[in-house]
Design brief:
- The radius of gyration is 25 Å and the shape is rod-shaped.
- The protein has a two-stranded antiparallel ribbon.
- It contains 2 helices and 2 strands, in the order H-H-E-E.
- By secondary structure, the protein is mainly alpha-helical.
- It has helices at residues 3-59, 64-84; strands spanning 87-89, 94-96.
Length: 109
């Protein structure tokens, strides 16, 4: 076998693994980054939803405290929607891709 050809084949096989690894790394990082943002968005909404439930339980559905927490939940949903065009429904445990939330969805029994 030609020494130059043998070197070329060896170099190609040695370089292919790092190139493949780099390609996989750079294509998976944006996905992980997006998932992280969705998770933070989900956590903000879940926290605001929980705070609203607590305010309703402690002060009543139409109390100023509940109204304040309802506004915070609206803001959390609005933030997710404006950033990702999706929002988390904590009660149904699912993402919505339509801006179809009801700001008074916690006003009923």
């Amino acid at each position: 076998m030609n020494p130059a050809r043998k070197f070329s084949a060896t170099a190609a096989s040695l370089l292919s693994a790092p190139v493949l690894t780099a390609a996989l790394l750079f294509t998976s990082v944006p996905r992980l980054h997006a998932d992280e943002h969705y998770e933070r968005c989900q956590q903000r909404i879940a926290h605001a939803d929980h705070e609203l439930h607590e305010a309703i339980e402690k002060h009543g559905r139409h109390s100023p405290q509940a109204d304040h927490k309802r506004n915070e939940l609206h803001e959390a949903r609005e933030r997710c929607w404006s950033e990702y065009h999706r929002w988390w429904d904590e009660d149904e445990h699912r993402w919505h891709t339509e801006r179809d939330w009801n700001d008074h969805d916690h006003d009923r029994d």
